[in-house]
Amino acid sequence: MQVQTPLFKGIDQSELSSLLMALRARVVSVPKDHMIYQEGQFVHELGILIKGSIVTTRTDYSGHKNILGNLCQGQIFAATYALLHAHVMVNLIANEDCEIVFLNLNTLADIENQSASWYPKLITNLMRILGQENLELSKQGYHTISKHIRGRVWSYLTTEAREYASNEFDIPFNRQQMADYLNLDRSALSNELGKMRDEHLIEFRKNHFKILDGPITPD
After folding, report:
1. Which of 3, 33, 205, 218 has the fewest CB atoms within 10 Å, counting from its CB?
2. What is the pLDDT of residues 116-126, one digit of tens each?
3. Is the dihedral of CA 205, 166, 5, 78 positive or negative?
4. What is the rounded distance in angstroms from the CA atom of residue 136 to the CA atom of residue 123?
């Protein structure tokens, strides 16, 4: 089983084989648009995405769907819920055909696993990844602070540019997903993007964006 993920950083092949057996690894193929985990579902398995992409959403009381993020190959999901034996607070949906490795975290409590050489490495990697996930959630909250559409869009795009270290980059969302992520109406978002392009602040085609030189003032 070929699994490339930060979760296994520093773990050699023999340790990985032992780890996968100890955590009862199983590989599942998931078709596009299939619900992997549904809000309210009880889970005990961490997922590792080894092929495809996953979108994370949550539906509010009015039925509006908010996109919280997008997972790509090598990333993990549902780790916090599996560790705490908790119900999932989000929906995880296959954005395309996916292959996923599921690991049973209940077995981390087994004494023989805690004495294995891979155990401290796995726990360290897991804590680092969970910290990064918390940071990503904080970033989304920061993007939606502004009451103005342009303020939200600019916050998101400039953050992406900093992370890519380039003023030209691809975002992981289509237009509807971007609107959901920023808690905006799709038509309003598209209209604002068009205005920003006309003002020579940005260029874009589908999910490819380029930030141009020039001042920016939220509407």
Report:
1. 205
2. 999 999 999 99
3. negative
4. 20
